[in-house]
Amino acid sequence: MNGNGGIDAVLGLYPPWWRERYGDEVRTVSSDAVAGGQTLMRVIIGLLAGAIRLRVTGTGTPKQFQPWASRTRACIVVATIPALVALPLFFLTLKVGLQDHLPLTLSAPVNSDGHIAYDAIQIMALAGLIMMAMTIRGYLVLVGVTPESGGIEHLTRRTALVIVGCALLVVVEVTAGVVPIFALVTVGVVVWGSVTAARAIRRRGAAGRALRHLLPVPGLLGGLAVLGWISSIAVGPDRFLDSHGVDVPLDGHVALAHSLVVASATALGLAWIATFAMLALLRQPARLRLGELQSGRRFGVGASLLLWVMAAAEVVAGVALGRQQSLRLPAYRVVSASWGHVWIAGGTALIVAATVSTLGAIAAARSWRVTAQLVT
Amino acid sequence: MAMKRLGRTQDPTILVLTSLTGGPKHGYSLIQDIEAMSGIVLGPGTLYGVLARLEAEGLVEALPADDRRRPYRITAHGAAVLRERLETISTVARIGLKRLGVAGL
After folding, report:
1. Domain match, A130 and A225 both
2. What is the pLDDT of residues A35-86, one digit of tens each?
3. Are residues A242 and A326 located together in one domain of the fold?
4. Which among A27, A60, A113, A360 could disulfide-bond with B52, CB atoms 3.0 to 4.6 Å apart, if both were Cys?
5. pLDDT by residue (tens digit) across A218-231?
6. Burial zone of A168 (CB within 10 Å; 0-12 exposed, 13-18 middle, 19+ buried)
């Protein structure tokens, strides 16, 4: 990347109205400044700082609806993007931090700290599920694929129903300790979000060729993941813990079950990636209405709150598991010995994500107030 | 070091407005004039952040562009605001120097 490329790349971070008004001038002045002795790096860092400052404060934004609507949308993206980044990290943490990821049972000897850790993990998982559905829906609003208010109401009702369904299933899971249900719920939410996104895009009728090819992929992959998971449960071994706490398989096809789980997880991951590829393809500017921005703002606030819930639950789980190990109590069987680093890394990532998301949500709230005033 | 720290706290808004009291200037001329006037080298990012804010507040206005260099000039409102700010700074400076026992004050 040459000097002009670097400057152009940083200028891309400024709002469109600013680039249109000052872009050419700043390019010229930056070239003059570099020719006059300022280092290119200093110029680029200065421009980067200016872009961040402008995005945060909105200083100088013309008092017109469209620039402020774009600013509100950018703030909502900042509030929801951390959720998209944190979710895969969260599931990675859960997978690496758990020794026997299938099946997890409550048949192991569990002390009070183990129970606290287990409950905290459940709360985190529930928050993650709700957030997963919310971020997909929030993004749909942001890209303007649900422009009709009737459609939004319909989809909101459906979102509420799915969230209540997820909550009920997780309650069943906490009560019965059957984690495959949790896995199925997770897959279900991803499939639902992906299929909803695909249907909304199709209804919008503006799908390009690449998008049309991508539309059925997430739902298909999600369906395969569900099948794989159910099959793995069917062919997997039953287990019990002997008196020394050793996990003993009874019968069944361990290798086949493991392969099915890995294949399902891969399909699920690809479905998740395909969903966001699909949403990224939709990223053309849409003229947003005030109601859509308000919905997006609420999704941003929701994502921010849920990230804090997840971060708090992860810290509680980490502390409880730490106490358990330090006291040399019988460790909760599902937690691996190397939990420490994983949970600390996951907790830190969630706290950072929650902080960024909260700042985005606050900026979105302020920006939305101005946008609402400008609509008249 | 302490002087350098104090120097960094200089408000670029005052520097830009003060520079424009000498006549309309485009971006790079402003950077050069401010450096000559105060020893502070503003980067384009800082400069245009300030110019955008001042323009939105009606303290400066853009003139027709010459090539891709657009000159800016201070408005009457900008001059009034600058005068008020400089008078405050001047009063504080006079009192501070007097209390420091600087001769002639």
Report:
1. yes
2. 888 888 899 999 998 888 887 777 778 888 888 888 887 888 788 778 777 7
3. yes
4. A60
5. 777 777 877 777 77
6. exposed
Residues A127 and A309 sit within 8 Å (Cβ to Cβ): yes
* CB-defined contacts A:B, below 8 A: 77
Average the pLDDT over A157-182 and give the result: 56
Chain B residues in contact with A42 (beta carbon < 8 A) = 43
Q: Which residue of A7, A28, A63 is the best one to mutate when testing the B interface, meaning the one whose CB has the most B CBs within 10 A?
A: A28
**Residues on chain B touching A40 (C-beta within 8 angstroms):** none
Stretch 25-54 of chain A: residues touching chain B, C-beta under 8 Å: 25-30, 32-33, 36, 38, 42-43, 45-51, 53-54
Whole-number Å distance between alpha carbons of A344 and A81: 21
- Structurally, how many domains does chain A consist of? 2
Pair A150, A34 in one domain: no
**Do both A217 and A289 map to the same domain?**
yes
Structure token pair of residue A275: 């969903």
**A50–B45: do the CB atoms touch at under 8 Å?**
yes
Q: Do A33 and B31 touch (CB under 8 A)?
A: yes
Q: Is 80 exceeded by the pLDDT of residue B32?
A: yes
- In chain B the domains, ranked by start, together with CATH numbers, are 2-99 (1.10.10.10)
Q: Which two tokens stand for residue B39?
A: 């020893």
- Are B55 and B73 in contact by the 8 Å Cβ rule? The answer is no
CA A145, CA A205: separation in Å to the nearest integer?
A: 10
Residues A35 and A125 in one domain: no
pLDDT at A233 over 60: yes
- Residues A12 and A85 occupy one common structural domain: no
Structure tokens at A332: 């909760």
> In terms of domains, do A280 and A345 share one?
yes
Residue A43 belongs to domain spanning: 3-54
Q: State the ipTM, two decimals.
A: 0.83
Nearest-angstrom CA–CA distance, A276 and A269: 11
- Would residue A60 count as lying in a domain? no
**Chain B residues whose beta carbon lies within 8 Å of the beta carbon of residue A26:** 27, 44, 48
Residues A242 and A333 in one domain: yes
How far B54 CA lies from chain A's nearest CA (Å)? 8
Which residues of B fall within a CB distance of 8 Å from A29?
26-28, 31, 44, 47-48, 69
